[in-house]
Amino acid sequence: MKKILLSGVKPTGRPHIGNYFGAMKQFVDLQASEKYDCHLFIADYHALNLIQDAAEMRRLTLDLALDYLAIGLDPAQSVIFKQSDVPAHTELAWIFDTIVTMPYLMRAHAYKDAEAKDKELNVGTFNYPVLMAADILLYGTDIVPVGADQKQHVEYARDIALKFNHTFKSEAFKLPEDMIMKDVATVPGTDGRKMSKSYGNTIPLFAEREEIAKAVMGIVTDSSGDVPTNVYAIHKLFRTEADLKPLYEANKGKYKALKEALIEDVDAFVKPLRERRAILAKDEGKVIEILRQGAKKANEAASAKLVEAKKAVGVL
Ligand code: TYM
Question: N or C: which end of the chain has fewer CB within 10 A?
Answer without folding.
Answer: N
